[in-house]
Amino acid sequence: MNNHPSVRSIGILWAQYGPYHFARVAALKEQAGSSNVHALELASQTSTYEWKRSATEDLIPLCPGAVADRLSFWQVFRSGRRKFAELKLQVCILPSYSPKQSLAALLAAKSLGIRTVMMNESHAGTARAAGMAALVKRQLVGLFDAALVGGHPQRRYFTALGMSRRKIFTGYDAVNNDYFAREAEEIRGRKSEVRSRYGLPEHYFLSLGRFVAKKNLATLIRAYRKVLDFNQDCQTHLVMVGSGEEEPQLRGLCHELRIPIYDKSGAGIENRKSKIENELPGVHFYGFRQIEENPVFYALADAFILPSLWEEWGLVVNEAMASGLPVVVSEAAGCAEDLLEPWEGTENYPETTGTRAQRRLNGFVFDPSSVEKLSQVLRILEAEPDLRRAMGAASRRIVEKFSCENFAKNALLAAQVAMGAEPITSDNLSSSKPSEPWADKLIT
């Protein structure tokens, strides 16, 4: 990318920077060469996330002291226009066109003649607009000069909305793979100590995320109940890390299904010891955790489960894969097509029906409306430790294609295309589908 110094000033904006954003921007700055990369955020707070942050001195807030999702359209438009002009941006990489704050930033950039790159992870399964709203969305997409999206479903979606597929680059959704791999390895090296401190069982399936309706966690709990019913000697627990409005209903469902509940929301905070030897298999609620604690739960799990009814992407799957876990992912998640690679094996599982069609190299994909399908997959993983290990190793290899370095490379390609370079594909992941005629070209 250093051969293309014409993009002298790039801004990259998110509502609020969290752990994922810092890692991506660090990689972008490293690869940008002589281009100046400015890390912009609407404000240092949002109403949704409770991230603890450090080393924020390089961030440039458009509206200091505000709450990002409470800003008005005009606050963002005026502040954004002023800051974009001051920085002499040529390209601004923006988080979509919705909500109103993102639209305001987009229009502020366009009013100054700044080229724009859309970051987006929407796909056909998450699209809600219809009629006039769909027409408006198509017009808004047309305001962008290029796009950086999650993967194949996202690229198909925005191609259908009228953007040239050769201006749509993949690899937006990335985490710091090295961080999760390194932390997981270190934790496994002292697993007895960590298990004791956090009260973690010897074997468990892991769910990590917000407790909201779209996460479909009731289906996971019902499927887990079926696993316990199928195998009376099952020793695998279900660990749920997160919090949200659905938690009372989820606890109530556990009571209804006669599944033991373990409240571990304080475990690990003050190095408390927890006696876990005699705990019957059940559901452990660990509450919300900051990103620096999450590797503990990934490192010692048997498998990671994402049962969402819909999901734009699902970055927790990236984290779990970087930590070396097999993953069980809803077919409605935007990451399922790209992160779970096809499998060509011949093993059969006679105790289940229809499972082979869901098998992937590093896990399983399932219908999120089917408790039975999910329970079948969990039973297979519970019974076959060798399969879990093989799938976990495959996860670690596959996720390397979805690195922050790949994000940075394709963000810079998108910026070049936005500035008028010949549009070409970013479909350079080895997991890509059959290539188009132009797929072997790259800007050099």
Could you explain the architecture of this structure?
By secondary structure, the protein is α/β, with parallel strands linked by helices. The protein folds into two domains: 9-174 and 403-418, Rossmann fold (3-Layer(aba) Sandwich); 177-400, Glycogen Phosphorylase B (Rossmann fold). It contains 15 helices and 15 strands. Helix 3 (100-111) links the parallel strand 4 and strand 5. Helix 6 (177-188) packs across helix 11, helix 8 (217-230) runs parallel beside helix 9 (247-256) and helix 8 (217-230) packs across helix 13 (371-383). The longest helix has 15 residues, at 73-87. The chain is globular, with a radius of gyration of 22 Å. Residues 1-5, 270-274 and 428-444 have low confidence and may be disordered.
Task: Describe, in short, the structure shown.
With 444 residues, the chain is an alpha/beta fold. It has helices at residues 19-31, 73-87, 100-111, 132-141, 152-160, 177-188, 191-198, 217-230, 247-256, 294-299, 315-322, 336-339, 371-383, 385-399, 404-418, and strands at residues 9-14, 36-41, 60-61, 91-94, 115-120, 146-149, 168-170, 204-208, 237-241, 261-263, 283-287, 303-306, 327-330, 359-360, 363-366. Helices cover 37% and strands 14% of the residues.
